[in-house]
Each structure stands twice: as structure tokens, then as C-alpha cells.
């Protein structure tokens, strides 16, 4: 490593921080990555592992507010909000409400698509030459509907995606769907197949990133907690951690749902709420799905990994609550049982929860801090952190290096939600 290389400290050892460290190192920076716990132990560990360019639409859109309100009063709703006296949470929901319109939905959708498309292409490059043993699969994703009403209603979304985003899916109804995916029960109305999508095993992805970063000379410091930023004027000079001080020419904060807890250090409000998701990992059932599937009407997803099988999803706004709610885990089991011939297998290898970093408009925060000129933020990727991480890492490296960005960074500006 060139002794004169610019020193960059990446804060956060999740999938986004790993990708940022990788592309910064490739750009010639001397990179140190710090993680307050173990590398890859946060939301990057137990999610469903989707790489899904099909997921271009933000959560906020026409009708989303009314749909959200209805689910809040449903028993066993996939969405749970634990209301509390938290001004940041109320402000987040107010900002979300303002984005529930066609214009903002399409604006966000095109920015989401740019990052997803970039990342999908980069994954092909990474898997071919860099990231090994991550159980990469590219058969696509099935969006499955139990009811005919749900299936037909999605036709309008399919038309929108084709018209506005050139993103079409193949429709399978009834018997044709069972021929494609025999693990489903008879009587399922149908599904839409997005052939662009893929999946991987997230914990193996993080182990692969750890190997690659070490080989590139990136220093990874685990159990290393950021406690203070020493700022002179508008420049961060060093980071104070529980393992000593780290000098830095540039700082990248990629701390996911934890980022709002660093607001004092970052000197800017961060419009992120932790959205708790759950998953169950178990052996592959005897009749195991071939495709990854999302059961849209029940907000449950399944991933048939090469070595295991995972059921995941639901959304719980409960602050930074680490508890595993058994009722939410049961929702995953119950939802899968409505669709699959063999929805479960024993024993359960892991019951897991993680905090998704949710922004009001579903766009991540990527760019320079409004208050500290040499500090960049890469957080707020919601449920698409795995899907968006390579594109984010490349974009951050370009911004830090002053290079021409490969996609327009303006929609992700950190100051847009102030």
C-alpha cells in the first residue's frame, strides 16, 4: 500500500460498508473499516438475500397511506407500529405521508432503479471474479398471489412498471404456475416472474467480503465503537474510538439503522427509522421451492438457498427493540403455510431479527454531509441493502475521489430530508 495514500475510515461493517471499503480500496485509498460489533453481524446477516432490480417502487405511493392505516387495525398485521413519544418517529411518518403521491413515487422509483440496475450488473462482475461461495442464484423471483383479486389488481402495477420503468414480468396463472413451481399448493391464483432478480446467502456474502477486503489490505477493526469525531472547522480530523484514535482524510459512515444515533457527531438530523424484520432459517424441506418467492398479500418471503431455507419479512416499527417477538415469527410460519405444500422443516437453525434502515421516500442517503465536508454518509437502504450495496459502494468511491459519478447522485442527497 502506498504510504502516501489518502486515509479513509469507513464506519460500519455491514454489506454497504463492505462495498464502500472495497471500491475505495480499488480507487487507491488506504482504508480502515471499524465495526462496533462483529463484521457482518447486523441486518446484513439474516435477511432473505434478494438482489432484486424488480423492486423499483418505493413504499410511499398513491394509496399507501390508506393501506397502511388499514393494516394497523388488523389482527396479526404484517405491519406493526408501536407508537411512542418520539418526535423523530412522528416526523418520519409525516414525511412519508407527504410522499404518497404519483409524482414523488415515480421520482423515487427512477432513482431506486438506477442504483438497483448498477448493482445488479456489478454483482455479475463480482461473482465472476471476486466474491466466491455466496450461493449466488439467478433464476428470478416469483411474486405470488393467493387470491384472484390480488392477482388481477397487480396487473395495473405491471402496466405501470412496463410503461415507466421498462420492467416487465411474465404472468403465470393457476395450473401454469404449478407447473413452473410445484412446491406451491393447488388453488393459488397465480404469480409474476421477474427474471432479472437473483438471491444469495447473506452471511456467506459477508464472509466473502471479509476475505476480499483483507486480501486488498483493508484493515478491519471489530468491536471498535465510534465515540467522538474531532472536527476542526468543517473538516473531520480524527475518530475517537474505544480502541484509540484514528486519523482520517475522509470518513464514510455506513451504519444502517444505527445512523440516527450518531446525529450529534454527524451534526445533521438523519431521517431513518429502524424497521424490524424477522427471519427463520431451517433445513430445506423435502418439497423445497425452486424459486425465491414473495407472498405479497401476506408480506412473507421465502428463499431456497443451496444449503438452507429461509422464511422472512414483516415490518415492525418499535424503535431499537432487540427482542424476538414470537408472534411475529409465527406470522412467517402461518403465511408460508397458506402457499406451500411443505412450508417448514425442522429443526429451526436460527430465529433472527434485524433493523432495516427506513427512509420516508425509500431512497438511501448517499453523499457528503451538509455540515462536515470530508464526511460522507451511505445509509438508509431500507429492505434493499444487499440489492443496492455494490452500486452504493462504487458511487461513494467516486464521490470521495472527485470522479464523475456513474449514476446521478442528486436524488440521494443527505440534506433532502432535513
Structure description:
The protein has 418 residues and is α/β, with parallel strands linked by helices. It has ten helices and 20 strands. Strands 4, 5, 6, 7, 14, 15, 16, 17 and 18 form a nine-stranded mixed beta sheet that branches. Helix 1 (15-26) runs parallel beside helix 7, helix 1 packs parallel to helix 10 and helix 4 packs across helix 10 (385-401).
Strands, total number: 20
Report the C-alpha radius of gyration, rounded. Answer: 21 Å
The main β sheet shows up as: 9 strands, mixed
Query: Which class of secondary structure composition applies to the elements?
Result: alpha/beta
Order of helices and strands: EHEEHEHHEHEHEEHEEEEEHEEEEHEEEH
- Which spans of ≥5 residues are poorly predicted at pLDDT below 50? none
Summarize the structure.
This protein has 10 helices and 20 strands. With 418 residues, the chain is α/β, with parallel strands linked by helices.
